[in-house]
Each structure stands twice: as C-alpha cells, then as structure tokens.
Amino acid sequence: MSTVLVTGAAGFIGFHLAQRLLRLGHQVTGFDNLNDYYEVSLKEARLNILRGEAGFRFVPAGLEQREIVDELFSSESFDCVVHLAAQAGVRYSMQNPHAYIDSNIVGFLNILEGCRHSGVKHLLFASSSSVYGANSRVPFSEHHSADHPVSLYAATKRSNELIAHSYAHLYGIPVTGLRFFTVYGPWGRPDMAYFSFTRAILEGRPINVFNNGRMQRDFTYIDDITEGIVRVMDHIPRHDPAWSAEMPDPATSSAPYRLYNIGNNKPVELGRFIDVLEECLGKKAERNLLPMQPGDVFSTCANVDDLSEAVGFRPNTTIEEGLARFVEWYREYFR
C-alpha cells in the first residue's frame, strides 16, 4: 500500500484512476478546484463516489494557489504523485489563453516544486497526443520530434514535458510523462465530441461533424488509460545509459525521465465512430458537415511499442465495446 496524490481527482481520468487505486488498497489524496469549464454537477457526482471509498481524502483548491500546494506537500508524505489536473480543450484555448498558462504552466511548476522539496519517489503527469501537432508521420512515436504544436493547449503540454525534464535533470526527480490519445468512456467530459454527439442525437438536434467526418482519431477507452497509468506507476524511470547528447532521443534522457504514448494504436475515422454511436443509441444522427477547425489535426495514431515493452500492456478495447459501455452509463446517469 502506498500514498498517492492524484490532481484533477474530480475530472474524468482522475476519478477513474483514484477509484482504481483505492480499490487496490492505496491511500489517495485527491486535489481539484471543481472549475466550471463543464458542468460542476458531474464533477461533484464523481467526487461523491470517491468520498464513499475508504482511504480517500479531498483537498479543494487550484494548482495556481501556491501556498496551498506548498502546505499540502509539507504536511503529507506522498510515495507517488499522478498529476492529471489541467485546463483541457484545444478550442477553448483560443478563447481563454490565460487559463491555460495559470493552470497548465504555473500550476505544474507548483507541483514540481512540491515534489522537489518532499522527496516524492515518482511523478507521473498527463501530456497529450496533441503535442505531435504538425507532425504527420504516423504512428506517432515518443522518439519523434514534437516541437511544432498547433494549439496553445498543445504548447502548454509540450512545455510541461520540457520543464519536467529540467527538474529530473537538476534535482533527480523520477518523472514520467504520459501522452494520452482521445480518451472516452463512462463519466467522460461533456465537451468531448462523443459526449456532445450523444446528447444531441437523443435530443433530436443536429451534430457538427468537422472535416466532413474524415478525421481519424486513436480513440482510447478509459479503462485502458487507467491500466496503463497504474502499471507505469511502479516502473520508476532511471537514466538511459544509451542516451547520446550528440543524437538526443526525446523519449529518454541521461536524467530519470521517460515519455510514453497510451493509445489504442487503431485509428478510427470520425464518421465510423458516429456510425457505431448511432448503433448503440438506436437512433440516427443528423450530421452537419463542416470544414476542419483551427487547432485540429487530421489524424492521430499511437505507437505503443515502448509502453508494451516497459510494462507489458497495450490498450485494446474496441470502439464497439467502449461506446456501448458509455451509452449504458449515459442512459442510467441522465435517466
């Protein structure tokens, strides 16, 4: 049994991870500011479930509140920190850029400082497939360059990776960055396409389908994401003796630092994804076909060979399985 800090515990991935860790017998401190980026009632419902589990404690605060973060790390001892809290959303980053700097940059620095001064054994943090940006070489590999982001959200996530590396190098903090690929499933985020599509289809409203539905995404079911995180938690990075400063590998380092993709490795065209969702709902969508939006990329696909080699796991839930489970949850939750 260990003591784990999960930031963003009332969020989609944070909720599922905290619940999984509690059921494995860990002590979990959840940290979240319950902001109103999407309906707070959903976050509170997730949180109420966690509060019913033995071994859970909750701290309501924002990452940018430095004094609270400092006090948390000085008053508690964490074996592992899983940093999932962030301002999410590619398109919202064009409307409210300051929220991304406050949460994703300033907030992340506060977490790093807390880990630095309290001797945390392993820090894992959420990055994103969006960091690959203008890179069109698929499947995306952690060993490829990811220095051309096409949204501020992606730029903050790539910044997290670089700042984390500097802390691993300077202070020896073992740090692992996890690049998630289009996560979906029960208790998901209402701003995500599959969630808003479901709501619109059941209410008889048209759905906006960008790039005429021809975009491809590596849709990854939530249970596969949490399985990957839990396995990587025990895989503490060390310096890579083969790392070369003359030919630097972005995924490894001479410091205790590592990057992993967590994705399904089976990209699906958005139009097909909607087809399956219609089958699960038993109702057809009225599709409003639109061009691609600024900040979007055409295709994402994860190379997960490194994850598989390190922890013996590859995400494998099909969209038919995953969407059926999501629709079942949606109907139950929203009656």
Could you give the topology of this structure?
Layout: E1 3-7, H1 12-23, E2 27-32, H2 40-51, E3 56-60, H3 66-75, E4 80-83, H4 97-118, E5 122-128, H5 152-171, E6 175-180, E7 183-184, H6 193-202, E8 207-210, E9 216-217, E10 220-221, H7 222-233, E11 257-262, E12 268-269, H8 270-281, E13 287-290, H9 305-311, H10 319-333
Parallel strand pairs: 1-2, 1-4, 2-3, 4-5, 5-6, 6-11, 7-10, 8-13
Antiparallel strand pairs: 9-12
Helix pairs in contact: 1-2, 1-7, 3-4, 4-5, 6-8, 8-10
Order of helices and strands: EHEHEHEHEHEEHEEEHEEHEHH
Rg on CA atoms, Å = 19 Å
Q: What are the low-pLDDT stretches, counting only 5+ consecutive residues below 50? A: none
**What class, by secondary structure content?**
alpha/beta
Strand content: 15-25%
Quote the average pLDDT: 95
Give a count of the beta strands, DSSP E runs of length 2 or more. Answer: 13
- Percent of residues in helices comes to 25-40%
- Give the strand order, joined by hyphens, for the main sheet: 3-2-1-4-5-6-11
Query: What would the principal axes of the Cα set say about the shape?
Result: globular
How far from one another are the termini? 37 Å
The number of helical elements comes to: 10
Taking the sheet with the most strands, its summary is: 7 strands, parallel
